[in-house]
């Protein structure tokens, strides 16, 4: 991570779970880290969990990734403050798992999942790439995908979540080819965790007896892929808890 010290990272969905663990990890590793979230006050509160020298490197920006104007405003703010972005972590995600694909009157729930997990990710990646290209930066874009982006498990409460994550799998490969054909050395990586203890799984207790990862496990995976040499691109990293039977 030494080559990223003093560089700029943007993390979406930074108010809790994987996003919160990631902004803390990146700021602690020496990166100027912008945590994007709707609940911006929760990102600000994360500074209290950092060592004193890392607190000033964590900045909070209000952003709803389902709104293009929010995304554009956030990237403009980062450019004005720091010149642009070097690393993007596309973490924002929702599931709406209490609503089925075939349920009546579920249009808004379907759009929320697609706009957050897929469209927002694509737009943030676009803005990050434009910033990197303009400054000739060999940056890195990381998508927080899911094991459900590779296989659908037989549950009736997944909504379009797996469809969007399959889309992230395809987008990662699509972006890799676009970056390669443009002659850049910008990397793109998909990280696909198994079950992680986050707000997405809720407090129903259904998963209490299942093997589960902690958000910090995924943040450590992000540090690993960022820390690889410039010649190495980790295209897909799947992280499962020990004992998991799925997949």
TrEMBL record:
<protein>
    <recommendedName>
        <fullName>Dehydrogenase</fullName>
    </recommendedName>
</protein>
<dbReference type="GO" id="GO:0016616">
    <property type="term" value="F:oxidoreductase activity, acting on the CH-OH group of donors, NAD or NADP as acceptor"/>
</dbReference>
<dbReference type="Pfam" id="PF00106">
    <property type="entry name" value="adh_short"/>
</dbReference>
<dbReference type="InterPro" id="IPR020904">
    <property type="entry name" value="Sc_DH/Rdtase_CS"/>
</dbReference>
<keyword id="KW-0560">Oxidoreductase</keyword>
<dbReference type="InterPro" id="IPR002347">
    <property type="entry name" value="SDR_fam"/>
</dbReference>
<dbReference type="InterPro" id="IPR036291">
    <property type="entry name" value="NAD(P)-bd_dom_sf"/>
</dbReference>
<comment type="similarity">
    <text>Belongs to the short-chain dehydrogenases/reductases (SDR) family.</text>
</comment>
């Amino acid at each position: 991570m030494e080559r990223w010290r003093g560089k700029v990272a943007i993390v979406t969905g930074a108010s809790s779970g994987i996003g919160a663990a990631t902004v803390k990890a990146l700021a602690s590793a020496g990166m100027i880290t912008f945590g994007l979230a709707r609940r911006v006050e929760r990102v600000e509160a994360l500074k209290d969990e950092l060592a004193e020298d890392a607190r000033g490197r964590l900045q909070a920006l209000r952003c709803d990734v389902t709104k293009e104007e929010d995304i554009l405003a956030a990237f403009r703010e980062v450019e004005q403050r720091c010149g642009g972005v070097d690393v993007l972590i596309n973490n924002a995600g929702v599931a709406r798992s209490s609503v089925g694909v075939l349920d009546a009157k579920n249009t808004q729930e379907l759009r929320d999942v697609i706009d957050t997990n897929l469209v927002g990710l694509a737009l943030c990646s676009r803005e990050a790439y434009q910033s990197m290209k303009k400054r000739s930066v060999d940056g890195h874009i990381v998508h927080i995908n899911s094991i459900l982006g590779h296989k659908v498990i037989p549950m009736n409460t997944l909504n379009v979540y797996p469809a969007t994550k399959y889309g992230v799998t395809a987008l990662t490969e699509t972006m890799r080819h676009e970056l390669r054909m443009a002659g850049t050395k910008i990397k793109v990586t998909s990280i696909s965790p198994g079950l992680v203890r986050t707000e997405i799984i809720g407090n129903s207790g259904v998963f209490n007896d299942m093997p589960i990862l902690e958000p910090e496990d995924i943040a450590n995976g992000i540090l690993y892929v960022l820390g690889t040499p410039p010649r190495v691109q980790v295209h897909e990293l799947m992280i499962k808890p020990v004992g998991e039977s799925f997949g």
